[in-house]
Amino acid sequence: MDEQPDRIRLDKWLWCARIYKTRALAAEACEKGRLRLNGHRVEKAGREVRPGDILTVPHRGQVAAIRVLSGAKRRGPAPEAQTLYEVVEE
């Protein structure tokens, strides 16, 4: 079976979704409390995310809210990564 996992570590998901260039940068952003998951500050890279969760991430001097659509099995090309989330319009 080639199903996407329901839950995945936040740092790994951010890397697979190409929000951060490296998994180390994603983990650093988590550890420094730069991200919010469903409105709560994240301080551990091992927090699990699942479809339906809302992430708030700093992006190019602004804050972006994104909804997790699915987990990721691997870091694929950009078009594949873009299917993992959607930007929430506010």
Keywords:
27% strand; five-stranded antiparallel beta sheet; single chain; globular; alpha+beta; 3 helices; Structural Genomics Hypothetical 15.5 Kd Protein In mrcA-pckA Intergenic Region, Chain A; two-stranded antiparallel sheet; 90 residues
Which radius of gyration do the C-alpha atoms yield? 12 Å
Strand order of the largest sheet: 3-2-5-6-7
Approximately what portion of the residues adopt beta-strand conformation? 25-35%
What's the structural domain tally? 1
Residue ranges: pLDDT <50 for 5 or more in a row? none
At the fourth CATH level, what is the homologous superfamily?
A: RNA-binding S4 domain
Number of strands: 7
Q: Tell me the CATH topology.
A: Structural Genomics Hypothetical 15.5 Kd Protein In mrcA-pckA Intergenic Region, Chain A
Give helix % range.
10-25%
Order of helices and strands: EHHEEEEEHE
Global structural class: alpha+beta
Biggest sheet architecture: 5 strands, antiparallel
Distance between the termini: 37 Å
Which CATH-level-2 architecture?
A: Roll
- The overall pLDDT, averaged over residues, is 91
Q: Count up the helices.
A: 3
Can you lay out the helices and strands and say which pair or pack?
Blueprint: E1 8-9, H1 10-16, H2 23-31, E2 36-37, E3 40-41, E4 48-49, E5 54-59, E6 62-68, H3 78-81, E7 85-87
Antiparallel strand pairs: 1-4, 2-3, 2-5, 5-6, 6-7
